[in-house]
Amino acid sequence: xxxxxxxxxxxxxxxxxxxxxxxxxxxxxxxxxxxxxxxxxxxxxxxxxxxxxxxxxxxxxxxxxxxxxxxxxxxxxxxxxxxxxx
Length: 86
What we know:
Elements: H1 13-21, H2 28-36, H3 47-50, H4 55-60, H5 68-79
């Protein structure tokens, strides 16, 4: 539950800042998926795994995606076992 402050369960500022950098047409599940998918700009590591240890890299990673459709494309390739490269 990286997105919440442990004391009062309010939303942490770091995930809010990263979410603000995602494409404008972001949807709830697409945002959650972005945090849970391997990311090319993070050496195929998931943003959720790096958000505490390397926030700067996670903050810059949304720039790799031009649209929600691109994120969905990558997720389909991963679930098909085809990797993230076209």
